[in-house]
């Protein structure tokens, strides 16, 4: 069997295309790499816990500050919390490229503190197209008094979700 010049070129072109396509679909797609992993509600064992895997947490979350004025702020679930010095609690959550933390509200009972994180659009990005991805993010909030053994709950929780989240101490 012999190939003509045109046959060799066609065979080489087909082989090149086949090799180029062989890598298609291999590895992590952008969607899979940026999709928010599901947060499994849970409580911290006595004495706290290490950061939960596959959740935003210490060491891999960008720290932002709350700034009132976000566009259409809405309650957003936080994945876990970390108690810091004094009355400060750091909330870890997933946010989008054009999101801005507006504020954190706290509701107190004798046994719980329910923290509700409000996130909206960043006014400087109004009218712009924003990339559709989630980034591990954190925000600090200062409570009016120490937790004093009260359990932290997520105020955005609805339905069967009890609002219990891991707490890192």
Describe this structure in words.
The protein has 169 residues and is of the alpha/beta class. Helix content is 14%, strand content 33%. The strands form two sheets. A five-stranded mixed β-sheet has the order 1-7-4-3-9, with no helix packed on it. Strands 2, 5, 6 and 8 form a four-stranded mixed β-sheet that branches. A hairpin with a 4-residue loop joins strand 3 and strand 4. The longest helix has 18 residues. It starts with a helix and ends with a strand. 23% of the residues are buried. About 22% of the residues have low confidence.
The H/E string reads HHEEEEEEEEE
Helix/strand class:
alpha/beta
Stretches with pLDDT under 50, minimum 5 residues: 11-47
The total strand number stands at 9
**Estimated share of beta-strand residues:** 25-35%
End-to-end CA span: 74 Å
Mean pLDDT: 75
Largest sheet: 5 strands, mixed
What count of helical segments does DSSP give? 2
Determine Rg (CA atoms, Å).
Answer: 24 Å
Helix content bin: 10-25%
């Amino acid at each position: 069997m012999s190939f003509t010049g045109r046959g060799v070129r066609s065979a080489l072109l087909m082989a090149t295309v086949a090799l180029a396509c062989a890598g298609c679909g291999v590895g992590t797609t952008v969607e899979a790499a940026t999709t928010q992993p599901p947060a499994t509600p849970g409580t911290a064992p006595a004495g706290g816990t290490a950061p939960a895997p596959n959740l935003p947490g210490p060491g891999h979350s960008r720290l932002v500050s709350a700034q009132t004025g976000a566009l259409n702020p809405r309650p957003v679930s936080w994945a876990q919390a970390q108690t810091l010095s004094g009355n400060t609690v750091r909330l870890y959550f997933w946010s989008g490229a054009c999101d801005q933390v507006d504020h954190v509200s706290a509701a107190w009972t004798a046994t719980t503190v329910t923290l509700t994180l409000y996130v909206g659009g960043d006014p400087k990005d109004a009218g712009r197209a924003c990339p559709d991805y989630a980034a591990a993010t954190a925000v600090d909030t200062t409570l009016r008094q120490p937790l004093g053994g009260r359990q932290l709950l997520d105020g955005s929780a609805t339905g069967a979700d009890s609002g219990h989240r891991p707490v890192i101490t």
